[in-house]
Amino acid sequence: MAKYSVHQQPVETLLSWIKSGEIAIPEIQRPFVWKASKVRDFIDSLYQGYPVGYIITWRNPDVKLKNGDLSAGKKVLIDGQQRITALTAAIVGQKVLNKNYKEVAIRIAFNPLTEKFEVLNKAKEKSNEWINNINPIVNDEVSITKSIRNYLNANPDADEDLVEDRIENLKRIKNKQVGIIELDHSLDIDTVTEIFIRINQKGVVLSNADFVMSKVAADELNDGNKMRKLVDYFCRLIVDKGFKKHIEDNDKEFSSHRYFGAIKWMAGGKDELYVPNYVDVLRVSFTYKFSRGKFSDLVALLSGRNFELRTYEAEIAESSYKLLSEGLMDFVDKTNYQRFLMLVQSTGLIHNKLISSKNSLNFSYTLYLKLRNEGRSETEVQQFVKRWLIMSLLVGRYSGSSESMIDEDIKQINEKGIEAYLLQMEQTYLGDGFWDFGLVSDLETTSVNNNAYNVYLAAQCNENATAFLSKSMKINSLIEQRGDIHHIFPKKYLTDNGFVQRQYNQIANFVYTEQSTNIKVGKMAPKEYMKKVLEEIDAKRYDISTIDSKPIIEQNLETNDMPNLLYSADYTDYQDFLISRRRMMADKIKNYYKSL
């Protein structure tokens, strides 16, 4: 049996399929990424009869209904959203969202004398040679006879036969052929993805989450199309608070639905720490409710897949949409969402630049929702989620094939329980070898986007540590203010003594301190500026540091994990300093993790 068919259809037929619902077009509430000039070129290619690429659809499987009948599956658009949008914008006249999320019309002008298309501008609008908008002509809103007559009245010297011929050619755009590849429902997602990549020569990656969103958006029976809006609108409200009014003004049906009631709080909420996109929302909701991690499973379940009998059943599809809806509602719930963010911040992860793995956050939120749903105490929930989050960041749990890891973790937690599985993970990955050698080795790097270093900073924020050589300025304040990190052994001092960038930019040589302190330190050796700091305390004159007593200096150095040799260190001690400080940083991370 053929797994796909390739055929041509006229633009007019394609548009009629869209209007009738024969092809389910996902409602993507995101900007139209094509520039208006690309829409112009697309219309010009149709006019000239040039190939314009393929539209790819994937047919939903026929589903067995409760009465035993089969319901024919719709075609779901997999690729071609931008071309479809271009057609509906230029020919049907529908408005599109621009990059600023404003609804705009794209008007394409046509010059019959030169057979040129242009995006309508003021110059073209004032010129009699240009038809301001091709939409009414191509879309049968105005008769071709009237169009020709109007143009000739405005251009009396034009060749009548030529004008007539070219306006008729313009109208024939809707008869031009578009290639359609229809994929059979029996194809798995990996095969569909491979076909997509091979046909799409730009090498655009199609994620399994895109398949889910297309599947959900095409469903009206189980309110999937509204779930799609729930996801898109929520993600949009996180970054665009004014979008709430847009929903209320332009989407009356959705704004009266319970989904809108669940997300509208975000118009007054704040999230600069997590900022989930549609993939993250789907990931958490699906993994939490279905105890699976692979989106291909979700596509199958939403199709009504019975994995044992290998059939498709309406009841399975219905229950799957219900479960997904419950997961989405729990995800966007104000109390759940805000408490989770507070929990993350309480670990010391106070800024998104300290969180290198979005999937560590995703799985931690999944775990949070799961444990709360099980009725666990708040203390238990917090302890397990905090530890899982930090553990997964430290070991880079989701840095590779994250979907497989998520699938494995949720299934293991279901089977063994969170206590046993977390203990197993700690024994496997966080043994003495990790704390004494692996972590120290991880800290030997120049990358500030290093998991170990970010967790070290979280540990400092967690204990409300003061900045290096500062009496009151907190490290978390400098991180939140996007303050700079500075060199303990100044960069200029080390370069003057023959050290290269890879050496002086070691993260064990980094510290958060106030700008004024960094400037006063200049290019002094540590033993020089530390001697001055101690002299200033004796003289009660505070220039380099704001610290006014020697016990506080000692406490500050301990807080910032400074080896004692700092007092006497010059460039000859630099490598020893790095080795000692890495060990101290690793010890801080270990003690911090154990305290969670």
Automatic annotation (TrEMBL):
- Domain GmrSD restriction endonucleases N-terminal: from-to ranges: 12-215
Pfam families from the xrefs?
A: GmrSD_N
Q: What is this protein called?
A: GmrSD restriction endonucleases N-terminal domain-containing protein
